Amino acid sequence: xxxxxxAGRVSPVHPEAELPAWLSLxxxxxxxxxxxxRYLRYLAPGIAHLGPDPxxxxxxxxxxxDVPGIVPGAVMLPSRGRYRVARHDNHLVYSIDRQALxxxxxxxxxxxxWFSSAPNAESDLVxxxxxxxxxxxxxxxxxxxxxxxxxxxxxLGYLLPGASxxxxxxxCLTLVREGFHYLSDDFILMTAGTADLRCVPxxxxxxxxxxxxxxxxxxxxxxxxxxLVHGKRMLDLEQCYPGSHAAAARPTYLLFPTIVAHAExxxxxxxxxxxxxxxxxxxxxxADVRTAKTHVRTLERLVRQCEAFELHHGRDFLRAPAETLxxxxxxxxxxxxxx
Amino acid sequence: xTRVIRNPAVVCTDLDDGAVLLDLDTTAYYSLNRTAxxxxxxxxxxxMVEAIAARVAEKYDVDHxxxxxxxxxxxxxxxxxxxxxxxSP
Lengths: 339, 89
Fold this sequence. Notes:
The structure holds two protein chains of two kinds.
Chain A: E1 23-27, H1 30-42, H2 44-47, E2 55-62, E3 75-80, E4 83-88, E5 91-96, E6 100-105, E7 110-116, H3 125-140, E8 144-146, E9 148-153, E10 156-161, H4 168-177, E11 181-184, E12 188-192, E13 197-201, E14 206-208, H5 211-215, E15 233-235, H6 237-240, E16 251-259, E17 266-269, H7 272-279, H8 289-305, E18 307-313, H9 315-319, H10 321-330
Parallel strand pairs in A: 1-2, 2-7, 10-16, 16-18
Antiparallel strand pairs in A: 3-4, 4-5, 5-6, 6-7, 8-12, 9-10, 9-11, 12-13, 14-15, 17-18
Helix pairs in contact in A: 4-10, 7-8
Chain B: E1 3-6, E2 10-15, E3 18-23, E4 29-32, H1 34-45, H2 49-60, H3 64-80, E5 84-87
Antiparallel strand pairs in B: 1-5, 2-3, 3-4
Helix pairs in contact in B: 1-2, 2-3
């Protein structure tokens, strides 16, 4: 296991991270600007891949009645979640009525964001809008988001795609303590080169439940970190397990985690079609059809590059996480990609 | 004679054990077995239902009536899900 640092040196985010010169942020409101700058530092590992072509974020606070809507004459596109989406000239527009509007010019790398000044606005509205804008720009530049944890060792990359609550963080943390390199416990970007497909982190920090402090003594200090939503604590594992961070990995295995009530954990091979179907709900597809099609082709390359398995982690994982997971990974085929 | 037209927003990903149709308008996806994938591909080459059935009968060595019934059944399902549309003269 990597050596530990003292609790006093650990900080939850990357205050030292510099934003790249090709990224500009325009926001007249000083408090919002500071908040967004802090969020962008949190996303620094993912943002690094958007350059060197310029990216310009422009944020503007508006009264609910002054938040622009989708203009008449815009071509309506399929909705994405709670956003109504449209294309107008060269712009892709995501709108939540009277709350927010994101207008993107992907070719120019410009994202203009308006959001409501209403006092009851959601606390995570602005980070969500910034994240949406950056992921849309990233997908137009060939980097596609996937809700997955990612670790690597000995040249083998392990992706664990899954929704919140599937156990990604628990598995990831256990593997990092076993000496695996860490990319993310929650969300990665995929990019397809000429030879193979690689993944990179979108953000580097983990949101840990304080219950892990009881299990792993080196994490006991996380009680003292400021709580996030649901009481979790934000931590950069690199600061706790030095040398664990990896900037990129070539995925070899797809492991779809599920928490089960069984006594014993197990892995079970699944087909490529099954793996592909399970990846779709964890993928944030662009409303732009051409970009979304490239995204789908990238997912296809991912399943062709990897061996895919269900990973059912049961009560034995809670009792002895490292031993259980070691046994499961040793049961995976040693000739990945050979079929 | 019924003509079949694929929805251009649908992407077909053909994998070893079947295929997945993803409708980018709705983000709904559908898993197809190998026979259904074969018919989906034929729709791209040959839009007329009768001709598709003839190709299916030849490929799978079944009589034409049985092939036509299978093709019509799949086309009805695909149309219900808005993955294709049909035009009759």
